[in-house]
Amino acid sequence: MEKFAWVNLLYDFYGQLLTDHQRKFVELYYGQDLSLGEIAEHYQVTRQAIHDVLKRAESALFKYEEKLGLAGRFIEQRKRLQRALQILDEAKADRISEARKIINEAIELF
Question: Do 102 and 83 meet the contact criterion of CB atoms below 8 Å apart?
Answer without folding.
Answer: yes
